[in-house]
């Protein structure tokens, strides 16, 4: 609004009609405009332009809304008002009625109440200052201190100017005024439209009037027709000048156009006239390269690619070939196998699959198929269709070539026959027992032990019924028996080696009985046996005195078993501390060893028949003793504990060797008549052959039984045979030949499985014994029978 | 005291490298690594102990040999790949900006060209090495030569493959290196012997190949890229070795008209042209003018007739000459038990002479390309074919009198049923000479055969009786020339009696008799369909009868059947051979004793002893029993021996036996089928 006012003022000022006095014009209004335009030149100019261009004729009333829009100008307005007020105050000390009226006339024209306000306030503020003289003698206005109370600045709430109150204005229609102000003065009716029009009409706007003031000259800004046209064009984004070329041809200034006058007066340097050495050098380099053919003249690459490719194979890669040995890790890709008969388009009819085979092939998963095609028959070549897996097979082959790990596998190009060992002809292995020749019945309960006497006539057996029995080997007839114990089983029977006398040792419970069976032997043999056993009594009678001082309990008590037994031929009994399981004789027949596994320190005992003496060779035995045996020729004693066998030199009284069969539980073992080989039977179903010279580990491990092995035995009479007895009810006969040559290992050949014994409560064959000369063996079964095999 | 060695710093852990690590080490992408591996022939390895290599884990991983990867690090191709990547980036950028021209220029000028020459030299230090590895290359290239072009397979590649393949075929023809060929259901196998190396390749039949599914043509393309380079250089060297110019002149026009082999013009090298031997090898130049052709035909016909005459008259002379020429005499062992030493097979001279005197004409329905190749490779200089089969024929005139053999693959149709061929009237008056056209008329003196005749002749190295292969005749089976029957394998070429086991035929007869009761045995097909089941039943029956009749020990057969299962158990059970042996002996003795008893009784009654007339069945049973017993004895003996083997050897033995068993079973099945077929055939003949 202020701007508009200004414009108006400027315009009015320009108008030659002199409504106002010159002083009025001079005193400050113009100044204010100036200062104002200085303050907000940018804004106002824009506004001016807009206004002047947007609407060439100015509608005062329409400016109302413009004020509203330009809200940011309001503070400046008010500021200006204050300033003006101050100025008014400073400039006019006299009340200028005329001026006021003039102003009101003008300001009311704008419908502005503010101006009135100011004027009014002018009147009110008169006692604001006191007039004094300053140092120069001029008048000096000293203003009162402005009390900055709330109402001191009354710019916001317009005071009521008309004091007529709340009555309709039409009452004043007939008067030239419309009311009274606060001072009781008439408020004159503002000019109406007609008057304004008349006024405007009276004002003749000159051509090019813009209503703007040229800030440079302070004169109103006049714009010519051309200038306006330019403005219009600019606003329309047009080229503002006719015939203006926005894209003129570029004129190249500074483009080597030789100036007549040099910029520098310096003389031309020599280098401008002398060819460059550096360049010459570089050129020579290129020339040399061209001469040597290192640089070829550029040729446009022709589109003829085939020519290029032909060029590709235009020399021999292998012109100077030198064979290179393949890297040891290199594995060449295997070639695909050539096609077989079944791939033929017209194969022999037998290669064609039948329906079942076709169905099976189709049913199979594609990856599991042995071959990826089905043989087909086509009568003529023209009927052969394309193979639909061709590309796929090629692709798979290429995948194999670069993706498949290659491993060198040794092809089994071995004749299987060469793997098989050369075995002796079965005929050469004969004789060996193959059939059951006789069954010895008549015992109750299991037969625990069996033994054949050294002449090969009688078989002794001991079983759960507590009897020791003697049978005739050929007929199977029981010739003699004796009940040794009521509650204990006869665990072991063993004939004394040697043909001169026949003594049977039988163990029942803790007691060993030495028996010379009554009435079945020839008198001289019987007598020899009796003598043998009786010899000890004398020794025992003399001995106790010497060793009687030792209060220690003897390892065994030797005594006579009593008349009832003695009548049967049981002559001597010796009782040890715990149950005896194994009895084994020394080859000479003077000693025998007993093993009572529970006996701990007394588990192994060596008895001397001739002295009725018992010795405990081991004070403390590591492990549970299982069996013990004398070496057939040397003074060596073998003791088997649960998983090792130790051999002791009896003469030197030292440990010779520990044999480790690697078994969990040894059941029995036997020493080869040569003395250098052992067979060991174990409860964990293994039969182990030990070569003592070779190692303490087994030479062969044979696992042909399904149940535990109870007993093993070598043939002692010169035949290369051995046998084992197992809980699966079978005996197995092996050929086991030991050659004197140290370089040659023993030959072991399985010969025969002898079945016949029944398995009772998971026990099969309890013991096996060989005939001293013949290839016969006798086995004791848990079914209460003895069987002779030949 | 030495320092404690850290784990994984030496040995297998260092020798092997996983694929991921290899790719990282080479700093290339996985597809580039794949390409590099294919080009350089580097393949994964299987470490002996996976745990040691992969720090204890046993996950499935691909391992490469570290040295291989190290050797890849110095590969010039690696730089090319990197350059290529950079250019590809630039092209991508240009395309992103829409600067197509730039992209085109970059592609044209900046993309590095990969040359594989040095790799060929490196992978195959000698020419022989390259020949040894030619199998896959040829198969692949022949496949690609027959593929249609697609977005993965550019037409340029296919054209190159075709060119290289045809050039190679030309060499094979010129050097008569082809030895064998085989028509399989997959395609045609060829085997050529070049400089002592047997090269076997497979060419598909000309049908559209199925290329869908999971086939990655980028991988195949990489292989093809390598193989084309290889074959190009091999061809160069091969051509040079027989004194030919490489590359041969290529006639694009002829190729467009389906000239194939004929589109190439083989030239001798100027230096060697004076040399007679090489001049002989050179293909006759393509004859263009009709007059010249007629002339040549005349000469050829003359030559052919004279040659035939000569052959007939000088047959014995040739025989005597044979003993004096350079070729190797065949040594034939006089006794059966002698070892047979291998002798080299047919020489190229023999191959060159096989079809040399003949002129062939291929009917329209025959596959021209393989026939042309194989006939020319075996010496035939004059192969003509129907004009519709393409350019480059010796003659397209079926009635040409020079033709000695016509290859026909059409069913025979009764003569009268055919309409007269349309004979166009010629301008120069009168009816033209009616052309001899099979099947309407046959030319006298001309042999009509089916294509298989060519292949069978080639494989056997001699001319076979053409009447067996006459049009419409039932062809003899086409057999693969590479199968050498080993001991125990079935061989279809020798009669059944020579290869069957003792007692097998008798067993078969018996079971056939049984089957006869309820089945019609005349139709071979029906036989085939239920053959298998019958066979199985028969086997079971036989076992039963053995057990009942002979009182065989049940335990023995049990042990046989359980054999495969467990080591320990079997070893425990196996061992009882003699027992059953003895018992069967007993039963045999028992039989004899009964017979004797019968005789005695008869004698006592005063009757003459009636000789027991053995029926066929009984006889069969006896033979069979004997054979069975013998086999059983052998098996027992073997079992006994096996028991003494160490565990390792026993396992080895088991593996060998597994293979043998499989082979035997297969052979037995085939023999059975054949026997059935033969029987059906004889029955049909009798009827």
UniProtKB/TrEMBL annotation, chain A:
Q: Boundaries of each BOP1 N-terminal domain copy?
A: 172-433
Q: Where is the composition biased (Basic and acidic residues)?
A: 80-95
- One GO term describing the cellular component: PeBoW complex
Pfam families in the cross-refs? BOP1NT, WD40
Q: Which InterPro entries does the UniProt record give?
A: BOP1/Erb1, BOP1_N_dom, WD40/YVTN_repeat-like_dom_sf, WD40_repeat_CS, WD40_repeat_dom_sf, WD40_rpt
Q: Where does the record place Acidic residues bias?
A: 40-52, 60-79
Instruction: Write out the annotated subcellular location.
Output: Nucleus, Nucleolus; Nucleus, Nucleoplasm
Q: Which GO terms describe its biological process?
A: maturation of 5.8S rRNA from tricistronic rRNA transcript (SSU-rRNA, 5.8S rRNA, LSU-rRNA); maturation of LSU-rRNA from tricistronic rRNA transcript (SSU-rRNA, 5.8S rRNA, LSU-rRNA)
Which key words are in the record? Nucleus, Repeat, Ribosome biogenesis, rRNA processing, WD repeat
Query: What are the ranges of the WD repeats?
Result: 440-481, 765-790
> What's a single GO MF annotation on this record?
ribonucleoprotein complex binding
* Keyword flag Amino-acid biosynthesis: no
Q: Give the region (Disordered) as residue ranges.
A: 22-136
Per the record, the major location class is nucleus
Q: What does this protein do?
A: Component of the NOP7 complex, which is required for maturation of the 25S and 5.8S ribosomal RNAs and formation of the 60S ribosome.
Record family assignment: Belongs to the WD repeat BOP1/ERB1 family.
User: Assembly and interactions?
Assistant: Component of the NOP7 complex, composed of ERB1, NOP7 and YTM1. Within the NOP7 complex ERB1 appears to interact directly with NOP7 and YTM1. The NOP7 complex also associates with the 66S pre-ribosome.
Query: What is the protein name for this chain?
Result: Ribosome biogenesis protein ERB1
Record organism: Aaosphaeria arxii CBS 175.79
TrEMBL record, chain B:
User: Per the similarity annotation, which family is this?
Assistant: Belongs to the pescadillo family.
One GO MF term attached to the UniProt entry: RNA binding
- Which InterPro entries does the record associate with it? BRCT_dom (IPR001357), BRCT_dom_sf (IPR036420), PES (IPR010613)
**Cellular component aspect of the GO annotation:** nucleoplasm; PeBoW complex; preribosome, large subunit precursor
Gene giving rise to this polypeptide: NOP7
The annotated subunit structure for this chain is: Component of the NOP7 complex, composed of ERB1, NOP7 and YTM1. Within the NOP7 complex ERB1 appears to interact directly with NOP7 and YTM1. The NOP7 complex also associates with the 66S pre-ribosome.
Q: Where is this region: Disordered?
A: 310-340, 503-687
Every copy of the BRCT domain together lies at 350-471
**Sequence ranges of Acidic residues compositional bias:** 503-523, 559-569, 577-588
Q: Where does the record place Basic and acidic residues bias?
A: 590-601, 619-642, 654-670
Q: State the Gene Ontology BP annotations.
A: maturation of 5.8S rRNA from tricistronic rRNA transcript (SSU-rRNA, 5.8S rRNA, LSU-rRNA); maturation of LSU-rRNA from tricistronic rRNA transcript (SSU-rRNA, 5.8S rRNA, LSU-rRNA)
UniProt keywords (A-Z) are: Nucleus, Ribosome biogenesis, rRNA processing
What is the protein name given in its UniProt record?
Answer: Pescadillo homolog
Stretches of Low complexity bias are at 548-558
The protein's job, in short, is:
Component of the NOP7 complex, which is required for maturation of the 25S and 5.8S ribosomal RNAs and formation of the 60S ribosome.
């Amino acid at each position: 609004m202020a701007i508009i006012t200004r414009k108006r003022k400027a315009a009015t000022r320009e108008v030659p009609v002199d409504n106002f006095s010159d002083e009025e014009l001079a005193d400050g209004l113009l100044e204010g405009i100036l200062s104002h335009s200085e303050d907000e030149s940018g804004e106002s100019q824009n506004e001016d332009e807009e206004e002047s261009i947007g609407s060439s004729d100015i509608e005062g009333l329409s400016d109302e809304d413009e004020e509203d829009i330009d809200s940011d100008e309001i503070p400046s307005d008010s500021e200006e008002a204050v300033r003006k007020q101050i100025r008014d105050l400073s400039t006019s000390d006299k009340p200028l009625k005329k001026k006021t009226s003039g102003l009101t006339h003008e300001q009311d024209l704008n419908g502005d109440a503010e101006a009135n306000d100011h004027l009014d306030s002018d009147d009110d503020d008169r006692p604001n200052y006191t007039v004094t003289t300053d140092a120069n003698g001029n008048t000096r206005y000293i203003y009162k201190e402005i009390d900055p109370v709330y109402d001191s600045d009354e710019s916001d709430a317009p005071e009521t100017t008309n004091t007529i109150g709340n009555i309709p204005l039409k009452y004043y229609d007939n008067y030239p005024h419309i009311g009274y102000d606060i001072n009781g003065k008439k408020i004159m009716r503002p000019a109406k439209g007609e008057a304004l029009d008349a006024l405007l009409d009276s004002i003749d706007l000159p051509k090019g009037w813009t209503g703007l003031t040229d800030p440079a000259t302070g004169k109103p800004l006049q714009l010519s027709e051309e200038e306006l046209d330019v403005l219009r064009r600019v606003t329309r984004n047009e080229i503002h000048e006719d015939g203006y070329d926005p894209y003129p041809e570029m004129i190249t200034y500074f483009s080597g156009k030789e100036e007549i006058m040099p910029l520098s007066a310096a003389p031309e340097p020599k280098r401008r006239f002398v060819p460059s050495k550096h360049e010459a050098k570089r050129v020579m380099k290129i020339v040399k390269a061209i001469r040597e053919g290192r640089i070829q003249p550029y040729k446009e690459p022709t589109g003829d690619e085939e020519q290029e490719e032909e060029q590709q194979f235009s020399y021999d890669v292998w012109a100077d070939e030198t064979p290179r040995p393949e890297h040891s890790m290199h594995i060449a890709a295997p070639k695909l196998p050539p096609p077989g008969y079944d791939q033929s388009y017209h194969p022999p009819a037998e290669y064609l699959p039948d329906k079942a085979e076709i169905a099976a092939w189709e049913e199979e998963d594609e990856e599991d198929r042995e071959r990826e095609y089905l043989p087909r028959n086509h009568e003529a070549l023209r009927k052969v269709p394309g193979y639909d897996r061709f590309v796929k097979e090629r692709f798979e082959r290429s995948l194999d070539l670069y993706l498949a790990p290659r491993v060198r596998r040794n092809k089994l190009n071995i004749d299987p026959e060469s793997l098989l060992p050369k075995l002796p002809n079965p005929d050469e292995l004969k004789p060996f027992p193959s059939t059951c020749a006789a069954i010895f019945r008549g015992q109750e309960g299991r037969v625990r032990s069996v033994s054949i006497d050294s002449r090969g006539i009688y078989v002794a057996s001991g079983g759960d019924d507590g009897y020791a029995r003697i049978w005739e080997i050929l007929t199977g007839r029981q010739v003699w028996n004796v009940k040794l114990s009521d509650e204990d089983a006869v665990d072991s029977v063993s004939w004394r080696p040697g043909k001169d006398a026949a003594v049977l040792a039988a163990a029942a419970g803790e007691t060993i009985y030495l028996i010379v069976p009554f009435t079945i032997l020839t008198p001289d043999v019987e007598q020899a046996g009796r003598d043998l056993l009786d010899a000890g009594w004398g020794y025992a009678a003399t001995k106790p005195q010497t060793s009687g001082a030792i209060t220690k309990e003897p390892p065994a008590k030797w005594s006579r078993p009593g008349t009832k037994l003695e009548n049967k031929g049981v002559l001597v009994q010796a009782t040890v501390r715990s149950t005896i399981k194994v009895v084994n004789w020394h080859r000479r027949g003077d000693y025998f060893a007993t093993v009572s596994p529970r006996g701990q320190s007394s588990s192994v005992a060596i008895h001397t028949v001739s002295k009725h003496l018992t010795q405990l060779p081991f004070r403390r035995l590591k492990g549970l003793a299982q069996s013990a045996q004398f070496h057939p020729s040397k003074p060596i004693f073998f003791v088997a504990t649960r998983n090792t066998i130790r051999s002791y030199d009896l003469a030197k009284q030292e440990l010779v060797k520990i044999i480790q069969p690697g078994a969990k539980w040894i059941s029995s073992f036997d020493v080869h008549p040569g003395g250098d080989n052992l067979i060991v039977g174990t409860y964990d179903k293994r039969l182990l052959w030990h070569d003592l010279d070779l190692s303490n580990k087994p030479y062969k491990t044979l696992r042909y039984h399904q149940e535990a092995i109870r007993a093993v035995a070598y043939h002692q009479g010169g035949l290369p045979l051995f046998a084992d007895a197992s809980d699966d009810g079978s005996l197995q006969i092996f050929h086991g030949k030991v050659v004197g040559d140290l370089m040659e290992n023993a030959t072991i050949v399985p010969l025969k499985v002898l079945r016949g014994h029944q398995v009772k409560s998971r026990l099969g064959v309890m013991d096996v014994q060989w005939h001293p000369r013949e290839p016969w063996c006798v086995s004791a079964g848990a079914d209460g029978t003895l069987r002779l095999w030949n | 005291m030495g320092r404690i060695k850290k784990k994984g710093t030496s040995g297998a852990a260092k020798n092997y490298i996983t694929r991921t690590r290899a790719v990282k080490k080479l700093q290339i992408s996985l597809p580039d690594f794949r390409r590099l591996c294919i080009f350089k022939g580097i393949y994964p390895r299987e470490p002996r102990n996976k745990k040691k290599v992969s720090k204890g884990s046993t996950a499935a991983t691909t391992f490469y040999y570290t040295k291989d990867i190290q050797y890849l690090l110095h590969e010039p191709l690696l730089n090319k790949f990197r350059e290529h990547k950079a250019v590809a980036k630039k092209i991508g950028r240009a395309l992103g900006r829409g600067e197509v021209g730039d992209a085109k220029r970059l592609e044209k000028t900046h993309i590095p060209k990969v040359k594989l020459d040095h790799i060929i030299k490196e992978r195959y230090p000698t020419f022989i090495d390259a020949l040894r590895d030619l199998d896959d290359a040829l198969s692949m290239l022949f496949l690609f030569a027959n593929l249609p072009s697609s977005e993965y397979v550019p037409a340029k590649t296919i054209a190159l493959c075709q060119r290289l393949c045809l050039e190679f075929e030309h060499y094979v023809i010129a050097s008569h290196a082809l030895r064998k060929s085989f028509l399989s259901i997959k395609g045609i196998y060829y085997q050529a012997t070049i400089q002592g190396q047997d090269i076997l390749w497979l060419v598909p039949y000309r049908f559209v190949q199925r290329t869908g599914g999971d086939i990655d043509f980028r991988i195949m393309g990489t292989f093809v890229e390598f193989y084309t380079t290889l074959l190009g250089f091999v061809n160069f060297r091969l051509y040079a070795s027989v004194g030919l110019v490489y590359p041969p002149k290529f006639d694009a026009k002829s190729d467009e008209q389906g000239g194939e082999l004929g589109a190439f013009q083989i030239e001798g090298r100027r230096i060697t042209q004076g040399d007679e031997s090489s001049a002989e090898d050179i293909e006759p130049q393509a004859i263009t003018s009709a007059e010249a052709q007629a002339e040549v035909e005349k000469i050829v016909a003359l030559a052919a007739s004279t040659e035939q005459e000569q052959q007939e008259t000088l047959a014995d002379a040739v025989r005597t000459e044979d003993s004096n020429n350079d070729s190797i005499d065949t040594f034939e062992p006089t006794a059966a038990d002698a070892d047979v030493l291998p002798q080299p097979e047919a020489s190229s001279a023999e191959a060159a002479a096989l079809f040399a005197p003949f002129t062939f004409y291929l009917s329209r329905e025959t596959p021209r390309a393989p026939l042309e190749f194989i006939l020319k490779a075996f010496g035939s200089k004059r192969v003509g074919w129907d004009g519709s089969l393409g350019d480059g024929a010796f003659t397209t005139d079926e009635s040409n009198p020079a033709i000695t053999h016509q290859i026909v693959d059409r069913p025979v149709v009764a003569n009268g049923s055919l309409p007269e061929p349309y004979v166009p009237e010629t301008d120069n008056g009168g009816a033209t000479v009616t052309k001899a056209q099979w099947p309407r008329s046959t030319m006298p003196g001309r042999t009509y055969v089916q294509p298989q005749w060519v292949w069978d002749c080639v494989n056997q190295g001699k001319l076979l009786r053409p009447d067996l292969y006459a049009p419409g005749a039932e062809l003899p089976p086409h057999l693969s020339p590479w199968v050498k029957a080993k001991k125990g394998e079935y061989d279809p070429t020798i009669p059944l009696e020579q290869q069957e086991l003792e007692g097998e035929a008798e067993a078969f007869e018996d079971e056939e008799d049984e089957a006869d009761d309820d089945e019609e045995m005349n139709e071979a097909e029906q036989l085939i369909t239920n053959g298998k089941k019958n066979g199985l039943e028969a086997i079971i029956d036989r076992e039963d009868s053995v057990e009942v009749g002979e009182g065989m020990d049940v335990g023995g057969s049990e042990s046989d059947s359980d054999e495969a299962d467990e080591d320990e158990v079997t070893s425990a059970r196996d061992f009882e051979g003699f027992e059953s042996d003895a018992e069967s002996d007993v039963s045999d003795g028992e039989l004899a004793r009964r017979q004797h008893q019968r005789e005695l009784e008869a004698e006592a009654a005063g009757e003459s002893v009636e000789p027991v007339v053995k029926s066929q069945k009984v006889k069969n049973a006896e033979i069979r029993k004997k054979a069975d017993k013998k086999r059983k004895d052998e098996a027992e003996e073997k079992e006994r021996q096996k028991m003494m083997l160490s565990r390792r050897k026993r396992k080895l033995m088991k593996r060998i036996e597994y293979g043998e068993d499989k082979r035997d079973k297969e052979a037995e099945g085939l023999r059975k089928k054949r026997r059935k077929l033969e029987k059906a055939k004889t029955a049909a003949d009798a009827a």
